[in-house]
Design brief:
The protein is 38% helix and 19% strand. It has 145 residues and is of the alpha+beta class. The chain has a 3-stranded antiparallel β-sheet. A hairpin with a 5-residue loop joins strand 5 (130-133) and strand 6. The longest helix is centred in the last third of the chain and has 14 residues, at 107-120.
Protein backbone atom coordinates (compact mmCIF):
# COMPACT_ATOMS: atom_id res chain seq x y z
CA UNK A 1 0.00 0.00 0.00
CA UNK A 2 2.01 2.90 -1.22
CA UNK A 3 0.75 6.35 -0.27
CA UNK A 4 -2.32 5.03 1.55
CA UNK A 5 -2.77 3.97 5.13
CA UNK A 6 -4.69 0.90 6.22
CA UNK A 7 -8.17 1.40 7.62
CA UNK A 8 -8.81 0.57 11.26
CA UNK A 9 -12.23 -0.37 12.63
CA UNK A 10 -13.04 1.90 15.57
CA UNK A 11 -16.63 0.79 16.28
CA UNK A 12 -19.42 -1.52 15.15
CA UNK A 13 -23.15 -0.84 15.36
CA UNK A 14 -26.31 -2.87 14.75
CA UNK A 15 -28.36 0.05 13.43
CA UNK A 16 -27.76 2.55 10.66
CA UNK A 17 -29.10 5.40 12.79
CA UNK A 18 -26.57 5.01 15.58
CA UNK A 19 -23.73 4.39 13.11
CA UNK A 20 -24.70 7.58 11.25
CA UNK A 21 -24.67 9.64 14.46
CA UNK A 22 -21.19 8.45 15.40
CA UNK A 23 -19.99 8.78 11.79
CA UNK A 24 -21.12 12.42 11.79
CA UNK A 25 -19.41 12.95 15.15
CA UNK A 26 -16.12 11.61 13.79
CA UNK A 27 -16.43 13.54 10.51
CA UNK A 28 -17.17 16.69 12.53
CA UNK A 29 -13.68 16.41 13.99
CA UNK A 30 -12.21 16.35 10.47
CA UNK A 31 -11.46 12.63 10.46
CA UNK A 32 -12.39 10.75 7.28
CA UNK A 33 -14.60 7.74 8.10
CA UNK A 34 -16.12 4.90 6.08
CA UNK A 35 -19.23 2.97 7.18
CA UNK A 36 -18.67 -0.58 5.96
CA UNK A 37 -21.79 -2.77 5.41
CA UNK A 38 -24.18 0.18 5.78
CA UNK A 39 -25.64 -0.42 2.33
CA UNK A 40 -26.34 -4.08 3.03
CA UNK A 41 -27.84 -3.38 6.45
CA UNK A 42 -29.89 -0.56 4.89
CA UNK A 43 -31.25 -3.02 2.35
CA UNK A 44 -32.37 -5.46 5.05
CA UNK A 45 -31.71 -4.66 8.71
CA UNK A 46 -31.73 -8.35 9.66
CA UNK A 47 -28.39 -8.77 7.83
CA UNK A 48 -26.70 -6.70 10.53
CA UNK A 49 -25.99 -9.68 12.77
CA UNK A 50 -24.93 -11.87 9.84
CA UNK A 51 -22.27 -9.45 8.57
CA UNK A 52 -21.04 -8.32 11.98
CA UNK A 53 -22.83 -4.97 12.04
CA UNK A 54 -21.91 -1.66 10.48
CA UNK A 55 -18.19 -1.06 10.93
CA UNK A 56 -16.90 2.50 11.17
CA UNK A 57 -13.40 2.54 9.70
CA UNK A 58 -10.84 5.36 9.74
CA UNK A 59 -7.29 5.70 8.44
CA UNK A 60 -4.82 4.13 10.87
CA UNK A 61 -3.23 7.43 11.87
CA UNK A 62 -6.63 8.69 13.11
CA UNK A 63 -7.65 5.50 14.92
CA UNK A 64 -6.77 6.69 18.44
CA UNK A 65 -8.61 10.01 18.10
CA UNK A 66 -11.67 8.35 16.56
CA UNK A 67 -11.69 5.63 19.23
CA UNK A 68 -11.63 8.30 21.93
CA UNK A 69 -14.67 9.98 20.35
CA UNK A 70 -16.53 6.66 20.18
CA UNK A 71 -15.68 5.93 23.83
CA UNK A 72 -16.92 9.38 24.88
CA UNK A 73 -20.14 8.82 22.93
CA UNK A 74 -20.75 5.40 24.48
CA UNK A 75 -19.94 6.64 27.99
CA UNK A 76 -22.45 9.48 27.66
CA UNK A 77 -19.73 12.10 28.09
CA UNK A 78 -20.99 14.07 25.09
CA UNK A 79 -23.89 16.30 26.05
CA UNK A 80 -25.95 18.98 24.42
CA UNK A 81 -25.52 22.62 25.29
CA UNK A 82 -29.24 23.13 25.85
CA UNK A 83 -29.41 23.53 29.64
CA UNK A 84 -33.19 24.10 29.55
CA UNK A 85 -34.00 20.74 27.91
CA UNK A 86 -36.40 18.47 29.78
CA UNK A 87 -35.42 14.89 30.70
CA UNK A 88 -37.72 13.62 27.93
CA UNK A 89 -35.87 15.75 25.37
CA UNK A 90 -32.43 14.64 26.53
CA UNK A 91 -33.37 10.98 26.89
CA UNK A 92 -32.44 11.02 30.58
CA UNK A 93 -33.45 8.14 32.81
CA UNK A 94 -36.57 9.03 34.85
CA UNK A 95 -35.22 7.00 37.79
CA UNK A 96 -31.64 8.28 38.23
CA UNK A 97 -31.35 11.13 35.69
CA UNK A 98 -28.47 9.52 33.78
CA UNK A 99 -28.19 10.26 30.06
CA UNK A 100 -26.46 6.91 29.45
CA UNK A 101 -29.48 5.21 27.88
CA UNK A 102 -29.95 2.85 24.95
CA UNK A 103 -32.89 1.56 22.92
CA UNK A 104 -34.69 -1.35 24.58
CA UNK A 105 -37.49 -3.71 23.59
CA UNK A 106 -39.81 -4.64 26.47
CA UNK A 107 -39.96 -8.41 27.20
CA UNK A 108 -43.63 -8.71 26.18
CA UNK A 109 -42.95 -7.07 22.83
CA UNK A 110 -39.97 -9.38 22.23
CA UNK A 111 -42.18 -12.44 22.70
CA UNK A 112 -44.74 -11.07 20.27
CA UNK A 113 -42.03 -10.39 17.67
CA UNK A 114 -40.65 -13.91 18.02
CA UNK A 115 -44.15 -15.40 17.68
CA UNK A 116 -44.92 -13.30 14.60
CA UNK A 117 -41.57 -14.26 13.07
CA UNK A 118 -42.24 -17.98 13.63
CA UNK A 119 -45.86 -17.82 12.41
CA UNK A 120 -45.35 -15.58 9.38
CA UNK A 121 -41.72 -16.45 8.55
CA UNK A 122 -40.83 -12.77 8.33
CA UNK A 123 -38.79 -10.33 10.37
CA UNK A 124 -40.56 -7.40 11.96
CA UNK A 125 -38.69 -4.30 13.10
CA UNK A 126 -38.84 -3.24 16.72
CA UNK A 127 -39.76 0.25 17.80
CA UNK A 128 -37.61 2.62 19.83
CA UNK A 129 -40.37 3.56 22.26
CA UNK A 130 -38.43 2.37 25.30
CA UNK A 131 -34.97 3.21 26.69
CA UNK A 132 -32.82 1.20 29.13
CA UNK A 133 -30.59 3.07 31.53
CA UNK A 134 -27.00 1.78 31.47
CA UNK A 135 -26.47 2.95 35.05
CA UNK A 136 -29.53 1.67 36.97
CA UNK A 137 -31.05 -0.77 34.43
CA UNK A 138 -34.55 0.74 34.44
CA UNK A 139 -36.54 0.34 31.21
CA UNK A 140 -38.89 3.28 30.65
CA UNK A 141 -41.20 4.39 27.87
CA UNK A 142 -39.99 7.38 25.85
CA UNK A 143 -42.20 10.41 26.37
CA UNK A 144 -43.23 12.16 23.18
CA UNK A 145 -42.38 15.87 23.21
Amino acid sequence: MTGRSALATVATFDTIAEAAVVQALIEGEGIPVHASNSGLVGLDWSFSQAVGGIRLMVPGEHADAASALVAAYRDGALTTTDADASPAETGACPNCGSTRTEAATPPGEKGLLVLMTVLFNAMFPTSNRHRRCRDCGVVAAVQQV
